Amino acid sequence: MCSVYLWRNLEKRIVLHVPVDNRKEIREDLKVLEIIHDSSLFLKALDLFEKKWEHLNAFIEYFFDTWINSPFKNWYRGSIQPGFSNTNNLIEGGLLEDVLTDYSNKTEEDPFSNELFIPEDVWKKAQGMLSDDCLIKDQSIFYWTRLNGLERSKRKKVTNQMITKFSSLQRSRSFANFKMDYSLWRVKVGENINYSSCSCPKFRSYNYCKHLIVALLKLKKIEVPIQYSLKKIVSKNSKRGRPKKAGPALETD
Ligand SMILES: [Zn+2]
User: Fold this and answer.
1) For residue 7, how far is its CA from the centre of ligand 1 (angstroms)?
2) FRET partner for 240 with CA separation of 20 to 30 A, picked from 51, 197, 207, 226?
3) Both 64 and 91 in a single domain?
4) Whether 223 and 175 share a structural domain
5) What residues does the ion ligand 1 have nearby, CB within 5 Å?
6) Could you tell me which residues come within 8 angstroms of residue 3 by beta carbon, excluding any fewer than 6 positions away?
7) Residue 199 C-alpha to ligand 1 middle, in angstroms?
C-alpha cells in the first residue's frame, strides 16, 4: 500500500471530520501507527487509538472501514516484508554503480558475509551517527532513541528504563503512553546480514538502514568503503579549498 495514497485520503477525512484543534495530534498518532514494525503491537496500538478518538465517530468509522477492516490494511510497516521496496529502488535509482556489494570483513574464521547493497548516502548518514548515544545488550542488540523526524536534533541518551518500557508496549494503558514509550529503534544483529534487522521503517522498505550499518560497524563486521569514507573528505588536500572552476577554454574536454 502506497503511503502517499493513504495520506492523501486520510487528510481529506481529517479536514472533513476532525475539529481543527485535534488535527495535528491525530496526524501524529496516525504516523505512529504507520511506523509500527510488529503486527501484534499494531493491533494493541490500534485498540488504544480507537479508545482515544472514539468520540470522533465519523472519522473512526471511516478509518476502520477503509484502512483496517479492508483489503487495504497492509500500510503499516509491520505488514511490509523487509526489503519490499528494494527492487523498485534499484530500478528507480538506476545507478547500480552507486550500490555496493559485500564490504564485510569476510575471513575463514569470521564468516559474517552475504551481500549488502548500501547506497552512498546511507554510508554517509551512518558515519554521522557513529558517535550517537546507543545502548548495546548482549553484544548483538542495539538501541537508539528516535529523532522524531528532527534529523538535526541531538539523539537522547538511551536508558534501561526506556528499554523496559519499549519491551512492554503490549501492556500500555493509553495511546499517549504507547506513543511516548515507542521511543527507540532496535537493531538485532544475527549470524549474518540476512539474520539482522532493525525496527525502523527504512529497514522495512530496503532491508538495510543506517542503524544496522552503524551496529555492524561498531561490531567491526563491516568497514566503510574507502570511497565513501568521510575521513577521506577531510584529508589534507581539502584544506586548500575548492578547486577553482575551469575557465571556458578548459571546458572542451
Ligand atoms: Zn533502522
Assistant:
1) 22
2) 226
3) no
4) yes
5) 198, 200, 203, 209, 211
6) 34, 75
7) 6
Instruction: For residue 174, tell me if it sits in a domain.
Output: yes
Q: Are residues 95 and 211 both part of a single domain? A: yes
Vertex 82: Cα angle to 143 and 67 (nearest 5) = 100
Q: Do 97 and 63 fall within a single domain?
A: no
CA of 21 from ligand 1 middle (Å) equals 33
Q: How far is the CA of 203 from the centre of ligand 1 (A)?
A: 5
Question: Which helix H or strand E contains 13, and what residues bound it?
Answer: helix 3-17
Task: Render 199-231 in DSSP notation, one character per residue.
Answer: SSHHHHHHS--HHHHHHHHHTTSB---GGG-HH
For residue 132, report the distance from its CA to the centre of ligand 1, in Å. Answer: 14
- Tell how far the Cα of 112 is from the centroid of ligand 1, in angstroms: 19
pLDDT 10s per residue in the chain (253 long)?
568 889 999 999 999 999 999 999 999 999 999 999 888 899 999 999 999 999 999 999 999 999 999 888 888 888 877 666 544 333 333 333 333 333 344 444 554 556 667 889 999 999 999 999 999 999 999 999 998 666 667 889 999 999 999 999 999 999 999 999 999 999 999 887 778 899 998 888 888 899 999 999 999 888 888 888 887 554 444 444 444 444 443 333 4
Last residue of some domain: 43, 59, 79? 79
Same domain, 11 and 101: no
Residue 186 belongs to domain spanning: 86-229
- 145 plus 26 within the same structural domain: no
Residue 252 maps to a domain: no
